[in-house]
Amino acid sequence: MPELANGWIKRISVTPPSLKDNTADADRLEKALEAVLNAEIADIDLTISGILPELLRRNNFNLRCILFKDHKKWRLAGITGDDDTIVAGLAVDLGTTTVVLRMLDLSTGRTMAEYSFGNPQISIGPDILTRIHFAEKENGLKTIQGLIIDGINRAIGELCKSGGINPSGIYLLSVAGNTAMTHLFLGLNPRFLIREPYIPATNRPGCLNARELGINVNQSAKVFVFPNTGSYFGGDLIAGILYSGLNRSEKTAILVDVGTNAEVVLGNKNWLVACAGAAGPALEGGVTKMGMMAGPGAIDRVSVNPETGLFSIHTIENLPPRGICGSGVIDLAAALFVSGMIDIRGKFVPEACKGRLREKDGLKHFVLVPADASEQGNDLSISQADIDSLIRSKAAMYTILETISSYVGISLSELSTFYVAGTFGSLINPRSAITIGMMPDLPEGTYRSIGNSSLEGASMILKDCRLMDEIDAIRNSITYIELNVNQDFMNRFSAARFIPHTNLLLFPSVDSVALV
Amino acid sequence: MPELANGWIKRISVTPPSLKDNTADADRLEKALEAVLNAEIADIDLTISGILPELLRRNNFNLRCILFKDHKKWRLAGITGDDDTIVAGLAVDLGTTTVVLRMLDLSTGRTMAEYSFGNPQISIGPDILTRIHFAEKENGLKTIQGLIIDGINRAIGELCKSGGINPSGIYLLSVAGNTAMTHLFLGLNPRFLIREPYIPATNRPGCLNARELGINVNQSAKVFVFPNTGSYFGGDLIAGILYSGLNRSEKTAILVDVGTNAEVVLGNKNWLVACAGAAGPALEGGVTKMGMMAGPGAIDRVSVNPETGLFSIHTIENLPPRGICGSGVIDLAAALFVSGMIDIRGKFVPEACKGRLREKDGLKHFVLVPADASEQGNDLSISQADIDSLIRSKAAMYTILETISSYVGISLSELSTFYVAGTFGSLINPRSAITIGMMPDLPEGTYRSIGNSSLEGASMILKDCRLMDEIDAIRNSITYIELNVNQDFMNRFSAARFIPHTNLLLFPSVDSVALV
């Protein structure tokens, strides 16, 4: 692979000193770097000044400098000989549930290895609130920070094994996470994130020293932590915007990260508007009895032949079905609707469901997979309460989308692209999401699943130093709207609690499907 | 005491956040500080961002901020409640032989306590060269750095005891030392300081984190390390220039730090010229058999009644004499000369010395204190070789002074003030130094002993934030001259190897003394 033109590694030749020019090594290097960058550089770390004199003389005054940058300044993250040893960087998606690390060769941008693990803070609690309360206890913050740092260090160990390098070969980390996860990662007091007026300890952590955070990489390595715009809009989303390119497009587009919280950004190269709101856990498969996170054996796709009423399912890794994940639930609801097995209020239609409907604990259940076909020997079914919950969630989602677009005075139908982020998002079948009225009725091709956009954004930053300025531009151009649950919001929400919607004109394509 | 007008503590009121203004605490504080300072501030340390949210709310959004600065930027060294608890700073004179710490109340500038101790690196070797060679061994640098850091931490413990504060109440340190001591303090490779072309690892260490250096003070405390201009001109001298005010004066003056090495700065507010050269250990009392460092029982003053030939001596703390220190040797040589007991070449004149001259080991010795009057029951005497050595040293000293003044084209007689720095310097009797031709024949009152100017300069910086810019101005305006031991230098040196000098016109006042 060719060397990245705008990567973070610069080959620098320093003029050798002489009796007539006795400038110190660090000052000499600083001067050389500033000439190349045409910008000021932040203090050179003592750990770098310490190894500099020998390294300069062993390499005939030619070095590779590993740089980094934040909203303030260029930083020197390390120096190494003028050779071709691997200089690596790590992109980190600091998820509440899952943490993903990608190791990149900083010279070429090539992905060397990837590793993901469950956020060890789950042992404190699966949700953010529990963790923040824990952090308020004595030593709680230190403990909870230790969990994630230790987890990352273990992951680095694994990555280095598969990449065949030493942790000291890692010089840059870029970390994207929501505001709370970022605070816990940095050991910052998260107490006021959850108390009105919801103030983070910091918006722009910038570049930090990895060793100060206890991360086991090169001793002068720098960690760039994506900025947030407040408690509810974190660095993971800013990384996502960067990856989607929302901020570089002439045309207005939308980016939606669907989860327990739905985070939405709408905009173009001139402006960005964002909001976040609770969409309900139903969307992540967290509520139904057979619900599960996307994983091996999860039913992730469901379809129905409306004429025969026969269902087809697909499981992740084609294993015997163990449960259903969020995208499966959405597919299932859409299938039930188009085959007439639920009505526009989402209520089961017994005559259409026929033998698949069972009564359990006083609630109607629709059996998708009978016990003998399931992995664990029990019916995989969805209850009326599950469907009701899904409808509330999808209505909340749609209401959030309507609210933000009406805030800027455009119609959802005008969107050029609808980016869906997140693992869950990548599994959703837009056709099904449109059918149940969770997402607007846009032409096929408008929807674009972008996967783990937080990880992708964090990776991009490691490959192109020019993007660092873009991050700040994104952060500064976001207008964050507080979603006030007022009468207007409630009216929209009520109208969205039908499949696909009270106003069928909003969903012309669904209308025709339902009529089939 | 009133609060210092230009001290480092600023009382800052931060606008409380609201739902309409959800800027993070750290970003809010940064903005408030930048408005007050009218300048950018470097990254706020994580340890500060960590305690900020609670501290802000407990103090109704009013804080005391402890700032610091270097050649690059303002730094935030700590935050504390808006009350009157003591916020302390430490000025450190990092001497090769003796380390002196002074604890100051940063609000008022009052000295709270002082503490000095022998540099523990003496256990490696008394001289710089031995220590640098030791630092080149495996783990040597770490060991030798550990010695000084541990010593400073012990001293901090003592100072805190006498000052009645906790180490966490110390937020600022300013450290002035020569280039080698500074490198060893910072754990920087000193290898190339002693090899042509004599390049330091760094010229301007700037502000560092105390905790990174292992110094036991407040966890966000900053350490400012005085810059150097090369291997031979360190931060101690820059601190000395600052204290002398050489750089602020219209009139040209000179600053001399006399020791084994003589460091000399000549200049005024428009320019500064510096040089350093070996003056020989004789000046510090390091050569004569009875020589000793200034300390209890050391003969520090000697005078003679030229008519009776009777000597008077004074010892430090008026104890029975144990030896003679540098200033005593200079006095003695002057006394021997004015009473005719040595000639202009420094050779004993037996008929004038009378019974005081003894022959030992084939060398003539002049007995200053007979065995029965000395503390240890042995003659305190000075040999012909000692006098010869002193003359070489004084000739070197004078030659350095002549060389630097001729470099800038002025005569030594034009100097408005002759500052003498250092403990040794403070003991020298200028009259004696002039008599033997070690220092130029300037009117009484031109000589000003300024004591430990390195410690004083380091203290000044803690009391007046405006001086920080002056340090950089000093560093940048110094032209360092390499003393080339060429024919010109040797000619001057030869001419200076007489008492007071071959050219008696240079020493009109001595001429008259000698004639008495």
Outline:
The structure is a homodimer of 516-residue chains. Chain A has helices spanning 25-37, 46-58, 128-136, 140-163, 179-186, 210-213, 235-244, 326-338, 350-353, 384-407, 422-427, 430-435, 453-463, 467-477, 487-495, 508-515, and strands at residues 9-13, 62-69, 74-81, 88-94, 98-105, 111-118, 170-177, 206-209, 222-225, 253-257, 261-267, 272-278, 298-305, 310-315, 323-324, 357-360, 363-369, 380-383, 418-421, 447-451, 478-480.
Task: Kindly describe this structure.
The structure is a homodimer of 516-residue chains. Chain A has 516 residues and is α/β, with parallel strands linked by helices. Helix content of chain A is 34%, strand content 24%. Chain A is built from 16 helices and 21 strands. In chain A, the strands form five sheets. Chain A has a six-stranded mixed beta sheet, with helices on both faces. A six-stranded mixed beta sheet of chain A has the order 20-19-10-11-12-21, with helices on both faces. A three-stranded antiparallel beta sheet of chain A has the order 1-2-3, covered by helices on one side. In chain A, a hairpin with a 3-residue loop joins strand 4 (88-94) and strand 5 (98-105). In chain A, helix 10 (384-407) packs across helix 15. The longest helix of chain A is centred in the first third of the chain and has 24 residues, at 140-163. Chain A is elongated and about 95 Å long. The model of chain A has no long low-confidence stretch (mean pLDDT 92). Chains A and B meet through helix 1, helix 2 and strand 8 of A and helix 1, helix 2 and strand 8 of B.
